[in-house]
Amino acid sequence: MDKGKLDQRFDTHYTVTGLTQDETYEFRVMAKNAVGSVSNPSIIAGPATCVDTYGAPEIEIPDEYREVVKHKAGTTVELRFGIIAKPAPTIEWYKDGKELDPRAQAQLVQKNAADTYAYVRVQILDKPGPPPGEIQLKKVTANSITIMWDPPEDEGGAMVTHYIVEKREASRIQWSIISENWAECIVNVPRLIKGNEYIFVSGE
């Protein structure tokens, strides 16, 4: 007889499926060889009652949600999570009750026997707000003026990098650009006409 076949081994574990919740079972095992002979049964294992183990649900957060999730204003924000739970949980989504702003967070809550929470930071990118208040006149001469303004309270979800400063004579309707890439909140405007009245505006 082939010694290799005598030494052959088979898996000695088995997962039993199709059992009923709260039902009690006993198990035994018999061995059958290649010629069809069957051994005596093993020692009985059990009784064992089938009971699901309940615990807090698990939320699988995608790697791209580990950092701030950025979306442009006016677009639809869609978030997807993997959820592992038994029994099936109820799922609730939360975000700030007020209008969504750059500091808003989306919150996912799973509920069954225990609650599990997941948070995602969502940043909404929009145009910045205007500089608040009035433009301040810091220094006035016959042909120049220095103006200053405060930074906007709402940066639109990203740092303000520069300002666009414009002027127009009060008697005209057309604006002219002083600077399209001014980094500070103060600027000197030269080459003005003595005696003329001017209006100034700054934006981002």
From TrEMBL:
Q: One MF term from GO for this chain?
A: structural constituent of muscle
Q: Which residues form the Fibronectin type-III domain?
A: 1-53, 131-204
Name the CDD domains for this protein: FN3
Pfam families in the cross-refs: fn3, I-set
- UniProtKB keywords: Immunoglobulin domain
A biological process (GO) of this protein is:
cardiac muscle tissue development
Per the record, its GO cellular-component terms are: M band
Q: Which InterPro entries match?
A: FN3_dom, FN3_sf, Ig-like_dom_sf, Ig-like_fold, Ig_I-set
Q: What is this protein called?
A: Fibronectin type-III domain-containing protein
